Amino acid sequence: MTSSKKEGLGWMEWMRGWVNVVYEMLFQRIMASHLHNPMPLPPLNDITCVVTGSTSGIGREIARQLAESGAHVVMAVRNPKAAHDLIQTWQNDWSLMGLGLPLNIEVMELDLLSLDSVVSFAQAWNARLGPLHVLINNAGIFSIGEPQKFSKNGYEEHMQVNHLAPALLSILLLPSLVRGSPSRIINVNSVMHYVGFVDTEDMNVVSGKRKYTSLVGYASSKLAQVMFSSVLHKRLPAEAGISVVCVSPGIVHTNVARDLPRIVQAAYHLIPYFIFSAQEGSRSALFAATDPQVPEYCELLKADEWPVCAFLSQDCRPTNPSEEAHNTETSHEVWEKTLEMIGLPSDAVERLIEGEEIICKYGANQG
Predict the structure, then answer these.
(1) pTM, whole model, 2 decimals?
(2) Which of the four, 56, 255, 274, 321, has the lowest number of CB atoms within 10 Å?
(3) Transmembrane: present as a keyword of the record (predicted)?
């Protein structure tokens, strides 16, 4: 059985994956032409949302727009000072427009390059014993062209920031999400997962079987997130009332461009028509976080025993993730390997849903 283990995408899958990526870049604006910008949101006065990576790019737009619609927003960020400065600016603009009560935003520190920091954040939030209605795992990195780097936990940085840390955060916050039920976990994913491949025996891409590039690191971390989300979606009992959704923001003009080679940067600036602004890129996550039909769609997929979780494209319509994402065997291997890497027991989800405490290998022991 092991001799026939898949070692990468077949060339046809790989080609189809790149066709998806190029198609999205060329036609995303046309496909999303029915959407307003900014996206109109319903009143969210009784909703509490945690948004990771919310000091720049898409995350900043998500946090601001949720707060302006009345939500209680928690900016979970690596740089609290930058977040406080932003809030000051937003509050000043808001009061100048005379739009009523001040925005309800707070800041909590969270560094996804440290799994200890993830555990500390979850403990601090759960200790409030309040509800969490929406968790938006937005923070991510794409270190284009940079050499391979590892976190202090020993994991390849793309895999940790884009997959492992958000997976740990999602599971550890389940007690608060249950209190906020019906609640949602929204993972900001990427069309790049279509060209990703996950080898569960080589999550750090160090075995030499695959040559590491930042693209390999990024795409495989995004595919791992879809696979893990699909299993989490199935493991959560319907009565818990927690929906799991992955979204593609589209190809967005964010800080990623800073890391691009000069010639690519020039091309990037020549085609602003094709590339979304951060505000346009925030729409799919905002839709997934607020639209009333999203939980019904997730329940429908669960009832049909669909192999993947809900995946919304940049035009806010349901779409199918990659062929490889439908590989249920690999998805379960990714689930098990991820739990092992983030230091959680294999029955962590079931126990947390039941209200039990669990031990995590990271942090101050009590998950």
Answers:
(1) 0.94
(2) 255
(3) no
For residue 264, what are the contacts with CB-CB under 8 A and spacing of at least 6?
none
CA distance 28 to 24: 5
Distance CA 240, CA 185 (A): 13
Q: Note down the domain range covering 259.
A: 42-354
268 part of the active site: no
Q: Could you tell me if residue 99 is inside a domain?
A: yes
Tokens of 305: 């025993």
Question: How is residue 282 annotated by DSSP?
Answer: T
| CB atoms inside a 10 Å sphere around CB 140 | 26
User: Quick check: is 360 in a domain?
Assistant: no
CATH for 98: 3.40.50.720
Among all chains, which residue has been given the structure tokens 């003009």?
253
Query: DSSP string covering 90-130, please?
Result: HHHHHHHTT-SSPP-EEEEE--TT-HHHHHHHHHHHHTT--
Length of the chain in residues, anyone?
A: 367
What span, in angstroms and rounded, lies between the C-alpha atoms of 124 and 113? 18
If we measure between CA atoms, which residue out of 276, 295, 260 comes closest to residue 191? 276
Distance CA 164, CA 148 (A): 17
What string of pLDDT tens digits covers the 367 residues of the chain? 444 678 899 999 999 999 998 899 889 999 999 999 999 999 999 999 999 999 999 999 999 999 999 999 999 999 999 999 999 999 999 999 887 789 999 999 999 999 999 999 999 999 999 999 999 999 999 998 899 999 999 999 999 999 999 999 999 999 999 999 999 999 999 999 999 999 999 999 999 999 999 999 999 999 999 999 999 999 999 999 999 999 999 988 765 555 555 666 666 666 667 889 999 999 999 999 999 999 999 999 999 999 999 999 999 999 999 999 999 999 999 999 999 999 999 999 999 999 999 999 998 754 4
- How many domains, in total, are found in the chain? 1
Q: Check 218, 268, 273, 362 and give the catalytic one.
A: 218
DSSP state, residue 277:
P
Q: What is the largest CA-CA distance in the chain?
A: 67
Is 85 among the domain residues?
A: yes
